[in-house]
Amino acid sequence: MYEADLDQVLAIEQACFPRGWNRSHFQAELASERASCVVTEQDGRVAGYLCLTVLLDEAEILDVAVDPALQGRGIGAQLVQWACEEAIQRGARLLLLEVRATSQPAIALYERFGFQRSGLRKAYYEDNIDAILMDKKLMEEDVDAV
């Protein structure tokens, strides 16, 4: 993701989330050494995006969305696959995320990738929608023989 992508990214963000990120949120992630943001394109336009941050051995998907007109075509799966691979490459052992409890397609996608529900934040989103916390182990812990 580049600064030049932000108009298209923001249009998708606004279409997908009632109170999504604004330009300064994305700019902060683009400037952060801990973050990696990526877009996927279709026909020369941004089709979806994902922002990932890695701190020590934990990674977190901070924001991910696909253009509503293009959902259901595997774009979200490509982005989540990229996040898993990028997190491993950057040394993370655990990948975290939160998802609206009402977003069944997203929850199903994350479960397909092996994410498990690990917690709940009651009334976290607008309209008192709960956030489901999910995580995925990326690597088994090193085991020292005793």
| Annotation, overall tally of beta strands | 6
Largest sheet, in brief, is: 6 strands, mixed
Secondary structure class reads: alpha+beta
Spatial arrangement of strands, main beta sheet: 1-2-3-4-6-5
Q: Which band does the percent of strand residues land in?
A: 35-45%
Percentage of residues in helical conformation: 25-40%
SSE order, one letter for each helix or strand: HHEEEHEHEE
Spatial shape: globular
Tally of individual helices: 4
Low-confidence stretches: 140-146
Mean pLDDT: 93
Distance between the termini: 46 Å
Radius of gyration of CA atoms, rounded to a whole number: 15 Å
Concise account of the structure shown:
This protein has 146 residues and is of the alpha+beta class. The protein has helices at residues 6-16, 23-31, 75-89, 104-112; strands at 35-42, 45-55, 58-66, 94-100, 116-125, 129-137. It starts with 5 loop residues before the first helix and ends in a 9-residue tail after the last strand.
